[in-house]
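Help! Submission page says 'invalid entity' but I think these are all valid:
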Amino acid sequence: MPITNSESGTRVDEIADGLYRISTPVGPAVIPGGFTFNQYLIVDDAPLLYHTGLRKMFPLVREAVASVIPIERLCYIAFSHVEADECGALNQWLAAAPRSVPLCGRIAASVSIEDLADRMPREIADGESLPLGTHRVQWFDTPHLPHAWECGHLMEQQTRTLLCGDLFSQNGDKPAPLTESDILGPSEAFRARMDYFSHTRNADPMFERLASCAPTTLACMHGSAWRGDGAALLRELALKFAK
Ligand SMILES: [Fe+2]
Ligand SMILES: [Fe+2]
């Protein structure tokens, strides 16, 4: 079992070539139904961590990353939008990995990160691609999808993995690291209890743009990562969202 901390149950699983899911469960006593906080590590010439994890989870996530690569090698600390689970530990990572910089969209950079972060961010423009070595990530601005003005999503082109942040969030504290079973039903059940979408009227073209990347893996921040026809699943979610 790839557990890196027996007390918290933090685990690391390679879900695509060179792409690792780090997951820390939180029990039902803390969050009803249980929950997980996931980060994704892309190992390459310029390693990238997507989501820092909560500030208070930093020791657990650091331990997990260190089980894969020396943390000083990290080059990019990236995230979708400005929230504690997305970037709460950003400054701890910048201190631990001296050559790393924050990587985020232009709104996040100018509104928050240029001030909040201890090092200036590397802004990534809408549609811009950034090579990491054999992997290459492309950024898509998705304002308010599912929430936050500065929200965006990162597509890793080599493994065709969409780092989809809070989209398809599922609760539960023991999800499979990677599943081919349905995640849309569980994520919609979770959303029925706690609707984290902003319901932006511009959702449709943004869903369609993400779907046109044809991801084969969806790297969810909460719950299992998923393998399958990502375009179809994104379009199904768009239909539910439109109702
Ligand atoms: Fe969020
Ligand atoms: Fe989240």
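Support: the input was valid. A stray whitespace character was the problem, and the output above is from the cleaned input. Residues 102 and 121 are 5 Å apart (CA to CA).
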